[in-house]
Automatic annotation (TrEMBL):
Native source organism of the sequence: Microvirga alba
Residue stretches making up the Blue (type 1) copper domain: 57-162
GO MF annotations in UniProt: copper ion binding; electron transfer activity
Domain of life: Bacteria
Protein known as: Cupredoxin family protein
Region listing for Disordered, in residue ranges: 27-47
Alphabetical list of SUPFAM superfamilies matching this protein: Cupredoxins (SSF49503)
Keyword annotations of the record: Copper, Metal-binding, Signal
Signal peptide start and end residues: 1-23
Composition bias, Basic and acidic residues: 31-46
Pfam families documented for this protein: Copper-bind
Coiled-coil annotated spans: none
Amino acid sequence: MKRTSSLFGSLSVLLLTTGLAIAAPGMAGHGHGDEAPTGKPGDPKKTARIVPITMKETEDGKMVYFPDKVEVRAGEQIKFVLKNAGKTDHEFVLDTVENNAKHKIAMQKNPDMEHDDPNSRRLAVSKNGEIVWQFTKTGAFEYACLIPGHYEAGMKGSVIVK
């Protein structure tokens, strides 16, 4: 028993001292469960409209998505095909503006936070990824890079669901 608690204590100290943080279920900005404010994870086996999104930096120091606005119909399934064409890691977090603002604060405290959410992807330089999402609710939503400093440099876009 003593050996187990000692090992557990050592692991806890290791995690705390390395600064590694893992996003927990239900944390602000995460789309866990069947239904999030923006909709729900899509079914990769079903037809989806493909929307390519490129993440990059500009020569004048801005960080951008192209395109920075997407319009969809309520009920529509979208396959976001993500490409990091920049010179640094970027992420794509799809949520409400309010939830992204809360998550951005958490990211400032834990910039190396790892995500395991159906509504977000972090991509290293020159990497690609995908998110399949079904927009079940109308409204204005946001995709954003919440790595510290990126949002402030302009890395955000909008999804308008009609």
